[in-house]
Design brief:
Elements: E1 2-4, H1 11-27, E2 35-37, H2 42-49, E3 55-56, H3 67-74, H4 84-90, H5 93-100, E4 111-114, E5 128-132, E6 142-144, E7 167-172, E8 177-184, E9 187-196, H6 203-207, E10 212-215, H7 222-239, E11 244-251, E12 260-266, H8 276-283, H9 288-301
Parallel strand pairs: 1-2, 1-3
Antiparallel strand pairs: 4-7, 5-6, 5-7, 8-9, 8-11, 9-10, 11-12
């Protein structure tokens, strides 16, 4: 069963991921593949279908925050990607920092703020970044610069994440390059540089064909690439990720290795035609269909004890 869709802000991307996964499985001879657009009756659907394994193609809450994972654990259904605890921590940017920074992963120093405080003054020197605590795909991210049209202080009537979320994470803006590293099992695949043609690497740039140039592998010094590969592998292991994860970085090339910062770890990376994990897998000679099967194989290897799911 391929579980996709749902009701998060990343619903449409999840549908694209899920359809791609289902089609790849059918092409590779899997004869019983059911696509399920998740609604709040998903428990009844699972009970009726009795799947041997669920490919979790959901993005955002509740499919990426441990909620769906907990339901599948209770129903003893094997599922792909990370488990309950890992999912709950990794989707929360503050908790992720608390775990990864002591493990030696460099991340931007930031602080949690009440959104209303932005109307009184800046939480950090400009430029800085504001982002929701537990959204992915750059949903709700704003870069506040000296010459931005947000005002100084930010105006109450100006559109931005402060109108959607009560609390936000404020971080210094890291100038330089946007890069990402996929990890499968415990192996970091390669580094991709992302060059948006307009603005920054936001939701539209990620999922609209032609808006972002992918340079895979990135044309960066070997020691910089290796440092990112190492940090992504450490993050994957420290968080307890399973299947595939993707770590997003910024690199200030004026600072050498000291300018590398991990921004976040995605435990449910996209599987669309434009997605970065399939692209990096291809670079390593792994086809899209083989990638999907490898992720499923790891889920089946971790099948909960006690026999067939739901029995």
């Amino acid at each position: 069963m391929v579980l996709m869709g749902g009701w998060s802000s990343e619903r449409e991307v999840s549908l694209m991921s899920g359809r791609g996964v289902a089609e790849a499985l059918r092409q590779r001879g899997w004869s019983h593949v059911t696509e399920v657009d998740m609604d709040r009756n998903v428990g009844h659907v699972l009970e009726a279908l009795r799947p041997d394994v669920v490919f979790n193609a959901l993005h955002g809450a509740p499919g990426e925050d441990g909620t769906v994972q907990g339901m599948l654990e209770l129903m003893r259904v094997p599922y792909t990607h990370s488990g309950v605890t890992t999912s709950a921590i990794a989707i929360d940017k503050e908790l992720t920092k608390l775990l990864l920074v002591p493990a030696g992963v460099r991340m931007p120093q930031g602080k949690m703020i009440d959104s209303d405080s932005l109307y009184e003054g800046d939480p950090l020197p400009r430029p800085y970044v504001l982002k929701p605590i537990n959204e992915g795909s750059s949903v709700g991210v704003a870069i506040v610069t000296q010459d931005s049209n947000y005002g100084s202080p930010i105006g109450r009537d100006v559109e931005g994440p402060w109108q959607q979320f009560d609390r936000l994470l404020a971080e210094p803006f890291i100038a330089g390059h946007e890069l990402t590293v996929a990890v499968m099992g415990e192996e970091a695949l390669c580094v991709t540089e992302l060059k948006p043609k307009v603005g920054f690497y936001d939701y539209d740039s990620k999922y609209t064909d032609g808006l972002t140039e992918h340079i895979c592998p990135a044309r960066i010094p070997d020691e910089i690439a290796q440092s990112m590969l190492d940090m992504a592998a450490i993050a994957h292991k420290a968080l307890g990720c399973r299947g595939a994860s993707r770590s997003d970085f910024r690199w200030d090339d004026t600072q050498g290795e000291a300018g590398i910062y991990l921004l976040e770890v995605n435990t449910q990376p996209g599987m669309t035609p434009l997605s970065l994990v399939p692209e990096q897998a291809r670079q390593r000679g792994i086809s899209y269909g083989e990638l999907v099967e490898r992720i499923i194989a790891e889920a089946l290897a971790d099948r909960p004890p006690g026999g067939k799911a739901l029995e």
